[in-house]
Each structure stands twice: as C-alpha cells, then as structure tokens.
Amino acid sequence: MARIENVSGRERKLQALATAYIVTGLFFLLLPGTFLGVWNLVSISNRQALDQLAPAWLQAHGHAQIFGWIGSFILGIGFYSLSKMGGRADFAISSGWLCLALWTLGLLLRWSSIITQWHWRILLPLGSMLELWAFLIFFRMVSRHRPPRNPGDRKRKPEAWMRMVIASTIGFLLTLIANVALTSIVALRAEGPALPHEVDQKILVLATWGFLVPAVWGFNARWLPVFLGLEVPRARGLFTALGLAWAVVIAAVAGYLAISVAMMPIAAAVAIEALHVWEPSIHPPKTEGIHPAFTVFVRGAYAWLAIASVLSVCAYTSDRHGGIWGASRHALTVGFLSTMVLAIGQRILPAFCGMKVLFSKRLMLSSLLLLNIGCAIRVAAEIPAYEGLIHHAWYCLPVSGVIELAGVTLFAVNLLVTFSQPAAHLRRYGNDRAMRIRLNAAEASTLGSANRPNI
Fold it and tell me: CB-based contacts of 208: which residues, under 8 Å, 6+ apart?
C-alpha cells in the first residue's frame, strides 16, 4: 500500500508540473500572443499599410505564439512523458520546475524588452539566453532518456514517430541557439530591438519547418492511428517528408528561396500520404469525451498545410507588398499548427493534467470553428488588402483577428475549467481512499505504457 501511495504521489506531482506548463502556455497564447496580434492587426488595418507598424511588435507576437504557447506545451508534455516512459520521475520533477522558471522568465524578458524597449540591449539577449538555458535542461533529460526494456530484449531503434520528434527537438535547439546569436548581434549593433526582415524570415522558416511542422508530424504519427483509426504511418514516407522539411530550411537559410518554397508543397504532400490522414479510417475513431467533429478538424488542418505551402510558391512569384507571404504564414501557423494544437490538445491534455474529463464538448467545437473561420477570413482578405486589389478587404482583417481571439479564449477557458475539476474517478470514489489510491496507481501505469493514447 505504501508503494502505491508513493507512485500516486509522484504521479500527482508530475500532473501538477504538466498543468503548470500548460497554464503558462495559455497565458502567452492569450495576452502576449493573440491579443497583441489582434492589436497589431487593428493598427495595420487603420493605417492600411504593413510597413507602418513597428517590426519589433510583429516579432514579439510571433515569439510569444511559437515559444510562449506551443513551446511551453511541448516542454510540459515532454517532461511528463519521458518520466512515464522509463525516466526518473523525481529528477524530472525538479528539473521540470527549474526549466519552467527559467523558460517563463526568459520569455517575459524577451517580450517586455521589445514592447517597452526598456534596457532592451541587455534584456533582449538575456531573455534569449535564459530560454536556451531552460531548454538545455530539457534537452539533457531527453538525451539521457532510455526506454525501459525487458531483460534479454535486443536493443531496438526508436520508433519512427519518436525519431521524428527527436529531429524536431534538434530543430528547437538550433532555433534557440540562432535566437541567442542574433539578439546579441542586434543588441550590439542595431538601433532597435527588431531583427532585420530577411533574417527574421529565415528564423521563421527554421522555427516552423525545422521544429514545429516535424513535431506535429511526429506526434501525429504516434496518436492519429488511435485517435482517427488510421492505418499505421509509412516510416519511409515520414523520413522523406522530414528530409524535405529540412531541405526547405537549409535552402532558405542559404538564400535559395526559390528552391525552399518549391519543396514546401512536396514535403506537405509526402507527409499527408505517409500519415494516411486523408484516407478513410480502418478502425472507429476514439472520440470519447470530446466532440466527434475532432476528426474533421484534424484532417482539415492538413488542408491548411497544403494551402500554406502553395501560397508560398505564389508569394515568391507574385507577391509585391507582403499580402501573399502573410496569408501563407497565417495559413501555416494558425490554420495548420493552431488548429492541430486546439484539436489534439483538448483530446490529450485533460488526461495529462490529472486524468480529467474535458469540461465541454460544445466549447471544443466552438473554439475550433471560430479559429478556422477567423483564419479563412484572414487568408482570404490579406491578399487583396495588402496587394491593393480590394480596398474594403482591409476592414475584414480586424474582424478575423477578433474571431480568432474568441476561439483561442474558448479553448483556454475549456481547459482551465477542466483542470479546476476533480478527476472523474475521484468524483465517483470520493469517499473510498483505498479505491482512489488503486485507481491512481493503475492510471499512472496506463499513462506510462505503450498504449497511453488509448485513454
């Protein structure tokens, strides 16, 4: 019984750590991220020109979204998952809290120094260094992780999905290293805290195609066969898509933009085919506790990926004032990445953060609908507005931002209310302490097993 209580205690501590990362991510999603993005959009629309807004504000918005929101989610899930897959739980907990403190402080220093420009020459590179330091704590745990094996088992290579996630983790690390180097140069030489436009675009390609997109492909390879009932992904196709994604990054960083954008649609097509994401389900999808439209939005996210990659090609050949580039970027970051996080997040995070049941299926549907409606309006209006084709399209841009803000707010509310509720089994066995301890231990074992996504 004492051993079960110890397991249950460690599990609760890990759940508290994961919850802290998710709540931190939600903070950066709502305030430094989306709210600032809507503010930027309103300012651009009022002035009817992209170049009238300070580039630093646009970069602060993007950094909060990519690293403050999605980066925090990935770190929290990573610490929790590694400890359940053979890692040392006590070490993961202590390292995880230290990482969270450094990560959050670095993000706040980076964001606030850009917005206020208060001592930015010191705080901007310092924030980037703290982010890198925090990630190195996580990376050290990843590099030392060894999945448990039964005695006598032969050493096996990591599964395809895990190798994809490892590759994306390396992309994460390289992005943070580049951020430290570039912010240090800006602090020494530039007149303001913004990165030069061309450099910022290269960093954005590294962050998206080198880190975020492969991470989504890797996690999808692990979860979609269960969640959507799809056929097991083709490993060779996944690795081909990964290689193409990194070729996109290398070509962009080297200055061969034509080659970079030409490979984006190919990489997207190969990943879609390898994951079987647009093929019929061979098993019933697992949508217990969530809205059944979940499967539609996950598949739809890959439509946004295809649109984003094709728009990048069009932007290279036809863009004049940033409209097509902006639409492509938004289709990728909001249409693909954000839709995937809102859909998958509401499926897995309640289990990660205390074995909860999602508070509201209707809020889940509403958040995904609003996000996709707002993204569609933004992508459709940004090209004619920025390129000077339809004057009235400018008035659609702030509307799209407000709709997207409403969507992510409902997502955050749904998760926060879910986290505030007791676990389902505690509500059922609230007065039976022995039963609750056994269930906690059983759930801890289930979460650490190979079939964890079946929860």
Answer: 66, 332, 333, 337
Closest CA to 104 of 37, 31, 55: 31
> What is the rounded distance in angstroms from the CA atom of residue 272 to the CA atom of residue 230?
12
Q: Which two tokens stand for residue 454?
A: 């079946």
Q: How many whole angstroms separate alpha carbon 160 and alpha carbon 285?
A: 22
Angle between helices 396-420 and 361-386 (to 10 degrees): 160
- ∠ CA 71-76-77, nearest 5°, is 100
What is the C-alpha to C-alpha distance for residues 315 and 182, in angstroms, rounded to an integer?
26
Whole-prediction pTM: 0.88
Per-residue pLDDT of the chain (455 residues; tens, 9 = 90+): 444 444 467 788 888 999 999 999 999 988 877 777 777 667 666 665 555 567 787 888 888 889 999 999 999 998 888 776 655 666 678 889 999 999 999 999 999 998 888 899 999 999 999 999 999 999 888 776 655 555 555 556 778 898 999 999 999 999 999 999 999 999 999 888 988 988 989 999 999 999 999 999 999 999 999 999 999 999 999 999 999 999 999 999 999 999 999 999 999 999 999 999 999 999 999 988 899 999 999 999 999 999 999 999 999 999 888 889 989 999 999 999 999 999 999 999 998 888 889 999 999 999 999 999 999 999 999 999 888 788 888 888 889 989 999 999 999 999 999 999 887 655 554 545 444 444 444 444 444 443 343 33
Helix, strand, coil percent content, the chain, rounded in steps of 5: 80, 0, 20
Contact 399, 358 (CB under 8 A): no
Within 10 angstroms of residue 414's Cβ, the number of other Cβ atoms is: 24
Residues ≥6 apart with Cβ < 8 Å to 275: 217, 220, 221, 224, 230, 233, 237, 238, 302
Give the dihedral sign, CA 326/328/331/333: negative
Interatomic CA distance for residues 154 and 133, integer angstroms: 35
User: Rounded to whole angstroms, what are the CA distances from 348 to 340, 370, 412?
Assistant: 12, 21, 14
Q: Give the largest CA-CA distance in the chain.
A: 71
Give the Cα separation of 231 and 229 in Å (integer).
7
| Alpha carbon 99 to chain centroid, angstroms | 18
